[in-house]
């Protein structure tokens, strides 16, 4: 079990819930746009947000951003130790640096001194593009892990132990193997994810396999689904990964793969039902089935489900039909039965 580290008002590690992270893609200097995106990420289920701090203009923005959001903010720093120090003073709940690219030891020591003073953790690590030259003779996954651990040792040598580690590769297997290796060596919390996973289905598949495999092994305290595009999608996919492993409460929508018997557009209805369920955090399995021939039977393990014909829809609970309705009234009647079901679950 990993040690517990507090990031703002969020604890990670130990038996704490796994926290979803993402990163803004707005210009940090654009305060309003960045605040708006952070709030949207938080509403979607993100627990910690990372913000890039590339220059001192961004430090000024960071102060305003931190004041106007409730979620912990991680300042992402490269090369300039002064940016790390000023980010801490500006209110960042954690900083992300690699001591190896900060420069001279005294610069790293200054960052550590201020981090200690303010009680701010430091995330360090490596990705497949930042493997240290001294480890190139090792297998790639081990080289990645040792590159991350070298950054840890630098901080430890300076008496700092409020550390979170990240070792990511665009290769799913390297990511898994590197994190298993690190987990066997230290007990610091691990931030896991497959970096540069790509777009669309490719990113979803890589992230689901890489993150899921590690979580099944009990490895990982925070996660990020890294994909090009809207960061809100990262959070939604991360939630589905956690729900599928029973590590996050909330409804799961299941749907049949369709066949020639189908008389409704299952994909369209499943997406609509998913939208209907936004804001509900109870554990719930909802089935969207394509036909009344055997769909109800196949979906009988679901708490509640819908299926239908061209003109009508059927609502069923635990495989038993409770109502046949016109399609135009499906949402209204679905919620009627859902609210009754949730009321029974709570009593």
TrEMBL record:
Enzyme nomenclature, EC number: 1.17.7.3
Molecular-function GO term, any one: iron ion binding
Reaction it catalyzes: (2E)-4-hydroxy-3-methylbut-2-enyl diphosphate + oxidized [flavodoxin] + H2O + 2 H(+) = 2-C-methyl-D-erythritol 2,4-cyclic diphosphate + reduced [flavodoxin]
Pathway(s) the chain acts in: Isoprenoid biosynthesis; isopentenyl diphosphate biosynthesis via DXP pathway; isopentenyl diphosphate from 1-deoxy-D-xylulose 5-phosphate: step 5/6
InterPro entries named among the record's database cross-references: Dihydropteroate_synth-like_sf, IspG_bac, IspG_bac-typ, IspG_C, IspG_TIM, NO2/SO3_Rdtase_4Fe4S_sf
Name of the top EC class for this enzyme: oxidoreductase
General function of this protein: Converts 2C-methyl-D-erythritol 2,4-cyclodiphosphate (ME-2,4cPP) into 1-hydroxy-2-methyl-2-(E)-butenyl 4-diphosphate.
NCBIfam families in the cross-refs: ispG_gcpE, PRK00366.1
UniProt-recorded name of the protein: 4-hydroxy-3-methylbut-2-en-1-yl diphosphate synthase (flavodoxin)
Gene (name only): ispG
């Amino acid at each position: 079990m990993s040690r517990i580290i507090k990031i703002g008002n969020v604890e990670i590690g130990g038996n704490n819930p796994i926290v979803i992270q993402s990163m803004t893609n707005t210009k940090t200097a654009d305060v309003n746009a960045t605040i708006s995106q952070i709030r949207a990420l938080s509403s979607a289920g993100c627990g910690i947000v990372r913000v890039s701090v590339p220059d001192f203009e961004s430090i000024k923005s960071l102060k305003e951003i931190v004041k106007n959001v409730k979620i912990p903010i991680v300042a992402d720093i490269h090369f300039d130790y002064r940016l790390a120090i000023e980010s801490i003073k500006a209110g960042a709940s954690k900083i992300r640096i690699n001591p190896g690219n900060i420069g001279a030891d005294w610069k790293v020591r200054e960052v550590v001194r201020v981090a200690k003073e303010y009680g701010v953790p430091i995330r360090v690590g490596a990705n497949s593009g930042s493997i240290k030259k001294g480890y190139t003779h090792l297998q790639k996954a081990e080289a990645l892990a040792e590159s991350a651990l070298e950054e840890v040792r630098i901080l430890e040598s300076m008496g700092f132990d409020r550390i979170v580690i990240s070792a990511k590769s665009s290769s799913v297997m390297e990511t898994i193997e590197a994190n298993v290796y690190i987990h066997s060596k230290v007990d610091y919390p691990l931030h896991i994810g497959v970096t540069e996973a790509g777009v669309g289905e490719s990113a979803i598949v890589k992230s689901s396999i890489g993150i899921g495999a590690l979580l099944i092994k009990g490895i990982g305290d925070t996660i990020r689904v890294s994909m090009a595009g809207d960061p809100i999608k990262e959070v939604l996919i991360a939630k589905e990964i956690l729900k599928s492993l029973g590590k996050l409460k909330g409804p799961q929508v299941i749907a049949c793969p369709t066949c020639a018997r189908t008389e409704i557009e299952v994909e369209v209805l499943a997406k609509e039902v998913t939208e209907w369920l936004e804001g509900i955090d109870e554990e719930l399995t909802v089935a969207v089935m394509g036909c009344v021939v055997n769909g109800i039977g196949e979906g009988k393990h679901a708490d509640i489900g819908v299926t239908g014909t061209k003109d009508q829809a059927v609502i069923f609970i635990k495989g038993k039909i409770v109502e046949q309705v016109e399609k135009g009234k499906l949402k209204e009647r679905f919620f009627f039965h859902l609210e009754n079901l949730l009321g029974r679950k709570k009593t």
